[in-house]
Write a structure and sequence with these properties.
Blueprint lengths: L3 E2 H6 L6 E6 L29 H12 L7 E6 L9 H13 L3 E8 L6 H10 L10 H9 L4 E4 L19 H12 L5 E4 L12 H4 L2 H8 L5 E9 L3 H6 L6 H13 L4 E7 L6 H12 L5 E6 L2 E2 L3 H8 L9 H14 L5 E4 L9 E3 L6 H9 L3
Parallel strand pairs: 1-11, 2-3, 3-4, 4-7, 7-8, 8-9, 9-11
Antiparallel strand pairs: 5-6, 10-12
Helix pairs in contact: 11-13, 13-14
The structure holds iron/sulfur cluster.
The site of iron/sulfur cluster has 10 residues, from loops.
C-alpha cells in the first residue's frame, strides 16, 4: 500500500532535507488528559526549566549534527500546548526560534481549543500560505514552463473529494469551485495566476479572481513555513470525555476548518487504541479526517505511561483496557491508511517512549521493526 510520506510533503516546500528540533514554550497546558506525561515524548533539554528557545535549539542541533547534511531546521514546539500563554509572549518565542540559524519554519503542536484570533492572524500573515507549495514536484514543471498561463487551485483540492489540481479542467473550474465550497465549507475558492491550460475561460467570475495577485505575489515571497499540529486524539465524544480532553470532536473539526480556511497548513494527531474504541471507530476517524482539509496526520498507539491518571485506572481495572498487540495495531493503521485521502501525508505511525516510562504494552520494538510488521498488511 502506498501512502504519502512526510518527507514527500515537506519536499513540496523545501528544496532539501529539513529536520525537526523539538523545543518547548515552557508555559504548560490547560489540559489534564488521563494518558499524558510530557516527559515521555519530550527531550530532556526542552523540559529543563529556564532554558531559552535558542538554548534548546542549540542543544537539539548539536544532537542532530551527526545525521548528515540538511537544508534547514523546523523548530517543533512539541511539549505541552504550543499556543498556550499570553499571545505576545508566544509570538516572541516563535520569532526567537525563527532567528536561529537554518530555521526555515515552525511546527506547533497544540489543542483545538487553544487558538485565539490574534494568534491566528499572526500565523496567517507571518507564514507561508498552505497553497504556496511551489516546489511541489507534481506542479513544478508546469510552474517552470508555463508562467504565462493560468493555474487554478480550487478548494476541492483539499476538500472531501480531493480533486487534484491536475484534474481541474478549465471548462469545469466554475463547477469545481462551487462544489468545493459545498464540500469544504469555505466561503470562496482561490484562484492563482500561474500555470494552467491556455484555454482558461475569459468569463471566470470576478469575485473568484479578487485575491489573485495578492496570493500570487505571496506565493513568490520567502515566508517561513508553518504547520499546526492539532491534538484531535479521537473523533468520538464519549472517548474524549473519558480521557478528559476537555473539548469535543466539533471543537477539533471547527479548528481544522478555521486554520485551513486561513491558509494555515494543519495536521491532526490521533491515538489508536483508546479504551472503548475498535476497528469500526478507527475507520470512522479516518473518514472524518479525510473529509477535512488536513495536510498531515500523525498516529500513535495508546501507551499507558507512568505517572498518569490512566496508569491508576489501568492498575485498578486492567480488564477495562484492551491494549493492542503490534499486529493488531498494524492492522488498525493499515485500515486507516486505506481509508485516508491520499494527499494527506502520514507524519508518523508509531510512538516509542522510553521503556522506563511505559507501564503497558511493552512491545520492545523499534519503529523500523514495527514498519516491517505493517508491511505484511499492505
Ligand atoms: S495531551 Fe493533554 S495534558 Fe498532555 S500536553 Fe496535551 S493538552 Fe496537556
Amino acid at each position: 500500500m502506498k501512502y504519502r510520506t512526510m518527507s514527500d510533503y515537506l519536499s513540496g516546500f523545501f528544496p532539501g532535507k529539513v529536520r525537526k528540533i523539538a523545543v518547548s514554550a515552557q508555559m504548560g497546558c490547560p489540559g489534564c488528559c488521563t494518558y499524558c506525561n510530557n516527559a515521555a515524548f519530550s527531550p530532556a533539554y526542552s523540559l529543563t526549566p529556564g532554558l531559552s528557545v535558542t538554548e534548546q535549539l542549540e542543544a537539539g542541533a548539536a544532537f542532530t549534527s551527526n545525521k548528515g547534511s540538511i537544508y534547514g531546521y523546523l523548530a517543533y514546539f512539541q511539549s505541552y500546548t504550543g499556543t498556550y500563554g499570553p499571545t505576545s509572549k508566544l509570538i516572541s518565542l516563535y520569532e526567537e526560534a525563527l532567528r536561529f540559524p537554518l530555521v526555515k519554519g515552525l511546527v506547533i503542536a497544540t489543542r483545538p481549543d487553544c487558538l485565539d484570533n490574534e494568534l491566528l492572524d499572526y500565523f496567517q500573515n507571518r507564514f507561508q500560505n498552505r497553497f504556496q507549495n511551489r516546489f511541489d514536484n507534481r506542479f513544478r514543471n508546469r510552474f517552470d514552463n508555463c508562467l504565462d498561463n493560468r493555474f487554478v487551485l480550487s478548494n476541492a483540492h483539499q476538500g472531501a473529494e480531493s480533486v487534484r489540481a491536475e484534474s481541474v479542467r478549465a471548462e469545469s473550474v466554475r463547477a469545481e469551485s462551487v462544489r468545493a465550497n459545498s464540500v469544504g465549507g469555505y466561503s470562496a475558492s482561490r484562484v492563482y495566476d500561474g500555470f494552467f491550460p491556455e484555454d482558461f475561460p475569459e468569463d471566470f467570475p470576478e469575485d473568484f479572481s479578487e485575491d489573485f495577485s495578492e496570493d500570487f505575489s505571496e506565493c513568490l515571497s520567502e515566508k517561513p513555513f508553518l504547520l499546526i499540529e492539532l491534538g484531535v486524539e479521537s473523533t468520538l465524544d464519549r472517548t474524549l470525555a473519558a480521557v478528559r480532553r476537555g473539548h469535543d470532536w466539533e471543537c477539533s473539526r471547527r479548528a481544522i476548518l478555521e486554520l485551513a480556511g486561513r491558509g494555515i497548513p494543519v495536521g491532526a494527531h490521533l491515538i489508536v487504541g483508546l479504551p472503548g474504541e475498535g476497528m469500526d471507530d478507527y475507520l470512522l476517524h479516518a473518514r472524518r479526517m479525510s473529509g477535512l482539509p488536513l495536510s498531515t496526520l500523525k498516529l500513535h498507539q495508546l501507551q499507558i505511561l507512568k505517572g498518569t491518571r490512566m496508569e491508576e485506572q489501568y492498575r485498578a481495572h486492567p480488564e477495562a483496557f484492551s491494549l493492542l498487540t503490534p499486529e493488531k495495531y498494524a492492522e488498525a493503521v493499515s485500515l486507516i491508511l486505506r481509508e485516508l485521502r491520499p494527499d494527506i501525508a502520514l507524519d508518523r505511525f508509531v510512538s516509542v517512549s522510553p521503556s522506563s516510562m511505559v507501564v503497558a504494552p511493552s512491545w520492545g520494538l523499534k519503529p523500523a521493526e514495527f514498519a516491517a510488521i505493517l508491511e505484511r498488511f499492505f
